[in-house]
């Protein structure tokens, strides 16, 4: 046998092992898009490594577009999408409210599909979490708070219930693109007491359909809710323009 076909095995750098472990956790869905990683000191202790190779690994992951390191060296998991897809979509959506509404339309049908899958797959514990989030939304609206966070958490929890990690990353990407407009739209809804009541009841109907394990009713409830939300988004964004 020709010995030249074999090459010495090089031990991996510690930073490469850290990159592999964090990537595996993200790709498997154990670390979710938007989730905050522990502070460097805590993460280094958990991994049993020093901070220099950890920083090297985090910088590598940021260069790969998998995490984002923000001010204060806090790191967040990014949706798994290539910059070649994400950046043009951001630029496109910012050109006009009509473009934003096209992105919302994509979000609408992704959400409808997620609600349908959730009705098939939700566990009692997951349903309890949805009910808790609706309760938080109701409490926010009663106390005059915006209610945008529990609403977003509600929809993202439904996507998590699907158990499909690719689905979760796609939806997270779309939500990330719409982040600024999301606040504007909810601000418009907040100023209308009737809209707040309608949206709250629509959320309750979605949970009810998921609880009954009824995908058809879940799709119908989600479509009713998202058609209404789309209309309110259009009103708020066009008024701002």
Assigned CATH superfamily of the largest domain: GntR ligand-binding domain-like
**Number of helices, counting only DSSP H or I runs of 4 residues or more:** 11
Structural class: mainly alpha
Shape: globular
Could you report the average pLDDT, rounded to the nearest whole number? 86
Residue runs with pLDDT of under 50 for 5 or more positions: none
Tally the structural domains: 2
Helix content: over 70%
Strand composition percent: under 5%
Describe the structure.
By secondary structure, the chain is mainly α. The chain folds into 2 domains: 64 residues, Winged helix-like DNA-binding domain superfamily/Winged helix DNA-binding domain (Arc Repressor Mutant, subunit A), CATH 1.10.10.10; 158 residues, Up-down Bundle (Four Helix Bundle (Hemerythrin (Met), subunit A)), CATH 1.20.120. The chain has a two-stranded antiparallel ribbon with strand order 1-2. It is globular. It starts with 13 loop residues before the first helix and ends with a helix.
What are the SSEs and their pairings?
Layout: H1 14-27, H2 40-47, H3 51-63, E1 67-70, E2 74-77, H4 83-93, H5 97-121, H6 124-142, H7 148-161, H8 165-177, H9 179-190, H10 193-211, H11 215-240
């Amino acid at each position: 046998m020709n010995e030249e076909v074999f090459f010495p095995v090089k031990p991996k750098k510690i930073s490469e092992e850290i990159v592999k472990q964090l990537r595996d956790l993200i790709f498997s869905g154990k670390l979710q898009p938007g989730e905050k990683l522990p502070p460097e000191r805590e993460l280094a202790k958990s991994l049993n490594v020093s901070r220099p190779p950890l920083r090297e690994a985090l910088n590598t992951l940021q260069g790969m577009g998998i995490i984002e390191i923000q001010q204060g060296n806090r790191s967040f998991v990014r949706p798994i999408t290539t910059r070649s897809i994400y950046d043009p979509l951001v630029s496109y959506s910012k050109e006009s409210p009509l473009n934003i509404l096209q992105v919302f339309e994509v979000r609408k049908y992704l959400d409808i599909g997620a609600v349908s899958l959730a009705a098939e797959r939700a566990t009692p514990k997951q349903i309890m979490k949805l009910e808790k989030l609706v309760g938080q939304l109701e409490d926010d609206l009663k106390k005059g708070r915006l209610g945008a966070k529990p609403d977003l958490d509600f929809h993202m929890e439904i996507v998590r219930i699907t158990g499909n990690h690719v689905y979760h990353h796609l939806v997270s990407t779309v939500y990330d693109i719409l982040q600024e407009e999301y606040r504007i739209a909810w601000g418009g809804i907040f100023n209308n007491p009737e809209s707040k009541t309608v949206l709250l009841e629509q959320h309750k109907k979605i949970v009810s359909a998921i609880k009954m394990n009824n995908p058809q009713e879940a799709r119908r409830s989600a479509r009713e809710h998202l058609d209404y939300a789309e209309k309110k988004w259009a009103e708020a964004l066009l008024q701002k323009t």
